[in-house]
Amino acid sequence: MRALVLVFALAACSQPAPTIETPPEAATVEQPSLTVEEALARMPNWDAARAAGVDFRGVGQEPGWIVDIYTQDRIRLTWDYGESTADFPLPTPAYPQEGATRYESTVDGRTLTVTIRRFPCQDAMSGEAYPSNVEVMIDGRTLNGCGRSV
Questions:
Q1: Residue 42 phi, psi dihedral angles, 5° rounding
Q2: Could you read off the pLDDT of 22-34 as tens digits, one per residue?
């Protein structure tokens, strides 16, 4: 009996065996995919662009994109419905033909060409009329749309 009491007494005083707790699996939360309209609504609006110093804006669809040409220092391209954005130094514009303005810029191995033609354009999705046709080439990919002064 003494042996049994001694075993219980020692067991009560000893440290419990360490337990390894496994954290529960992190819950995977799937973000609902955005519609084209929702994705475009998340892109910068015209009033904010004007306040930030944008001089000209081009917009296009499929995939949604915006190119902002700032008055001072840069061109910002946001494309693939806002998933990609890149800033380029603002180059001196070229005028390859009457009624056309072209900007060509490179940064970090990426090449951007923006050609603005003063020719009426209608947005394919909204039907909104613009005074200019805009062609953007980013790393060999061509995006077509419309634009106007901000």
A1: -80, -10
A2: 333 333 233 345 5
